[in-house]
Design brief:
Strand order of the largest sheet: 1-2
Order of helices and strands: HHEEHHHHHHHH
Largest sheet: 2 strands, antiparallel
Radius of gyration: 18 Å
Distance between the termini: 42 Å
Strand content: 5-15%
Structural class: mainly alpha
Number of helices: 10
């Protein structure tokens, strides 16, 4: 039997997994710190349903279950940027969007943010605080922030010999392309982003030894039992 010292309140588990997952997405995607935490439940549903994917754009051997994609508004609201979900985050995303988990963590049904604040708040977590909390857990406080990581990734990509098509997709990923109409259907197809930008980001992660395992470890150790019981349940949006 586990001692009372080993018990972790559902709210505490949610917060820990929330911080690790938000940090993982921010680092992998080279996003601004405040972007992934603004993702809504419907956007994860879009990723799971492959609504941004066109399988015809992907090679036959590509495993579409290994990386998901959705889009969100970038800095400001006049353009959209892609958010890629690497394998390390998938199980945690299912946990954070599980209706029972969120209920036990004290998150109101009306709060549609994936990375929701707790204590019946209607807001989302702070990206900066998520990253800082994870770095403290890893004894790496101040080692990196979202802006530094964004610059690091952009610098590496700038040194690669990329085709014009790849450059356009990468600029789109960073939100540096020409203004995109707010109509989400004018964003670049997610399958192309996964095939190009996703591939490049994964390669950078491997070559520069940026290991996402610590984030996955924090996630698993925080609520291993809970995570193992989470299935496919995702909260439906109001339109469903």
């Amino acid at each position: 039997m586990n001692s009372i010292d080993d018990f972790q309140h559902p709210c505490e588990s949610f917060v820990t997994i929330r911080s690790a997952t938000a940090t993982c997405l921010t680092i992998f995607n080279a996003r601004r710190g405040g972007e992934p935490v603004r993702l809504h439940l419907f956007q994860w549903n879009e990723a799971l349903n492959g609504e941004w994917m066109d399988k015809q754009d992907l090679p036959e051997e590509f495993d579409i279950e290994q990386m998901f994609i959705t889009y969100q508004t970038g800095k400001g609201s006049d353009h959209t940027v892609p958010v890629l979900f690497p394998p390390e985050c998938i199980k945690a995303m299912r946990y954070l969007t599980n209706k029972e988990v969120r209920k036990n963590a004290g998150i109101p049904d009306e709060n549609q943010y994936i990375f929701a604040s707790t204590q019946k708040s209607m807001s989302h977590a702070s990206g900066w605080h998520c990253i800082n909390e994870v770095l403290i857990r890893l004894d790496k406080k101040g080692a990196i922030n979202a802006t530094q990581n964004r610059h690091r990734i952009a610098t590496i990509l700038a040194k690669l010999e990329l085709s014009e098509k790849e450059k356009t997709l990468i600029y789109n990923h960073f939100g540096h392309s020409e203004r995109i109409n707010q109509n989400v259907y004018q964003a670049a197809p997610g399958s192309l982003q996964i095939k190009t930008t996703g591939k490049r980001l994964r390669a950078i992660q491997e070559v520069t030894k940026v290991d996402l395992t610590p984030f996955k470890s924090i996630i698993s150790n925080s609520a291993e039992q809970n995570l193992s019981t989470i299935g496919e349940q995702v909260i439906p949006t109001d339109g469903e």
